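Note to self: keep these together.
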Amino acid sequence: MDSSALPKSPSRGNPNILITGTPGTGKTTTAEMVALAADLKKITVGDLVKERKLHDGYNEDMDTYWLNEDKVVDEMEDMMADGGVCVDFHTCEFFPERWFDLVVVLRADTTKVYDRLEARGYKQNKISENVECEIMQVVLDEAKESYKEELILELQSNTVDDMEENVKKIAERVEEFRRKHAETL
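Structure:
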């Protein structure tokens, strides 16, 4: 497949994009920039989980909520139907494949991940677990197991320049998707 193009979706004029990666890889910043650059609605799943109580309680040890995947999928189903959405979340395997036209997996050097999470005030056990996940490329492997290879785009996200280049690449793919979809009408 041409690496610069998104697959066509027969039912949407605008693509849905998932930006995923280990915490500390720049997902939220990248998603905000992509949504602005490509005129997409942004959904930060972590915020949605808290705001709409899409969880099964709080995990004190890891300082996070116990995600209820079924509640999240049910809540987001209508939001995703028409396309034009950029979703930001640190995992990807429970989202229906039909939702996404592009799955971006952000990667970062483990020292960057460590420093970013430490600056956020994460507990040491949570930092260590996330650094280990990045070393083991857990999110990338989950994406590869959950989505077609042609949907996955792995990008480095260590610097501001990386982020800006990533946004440019993703926005170009959004425009290509729109152009190809318009040709089929």
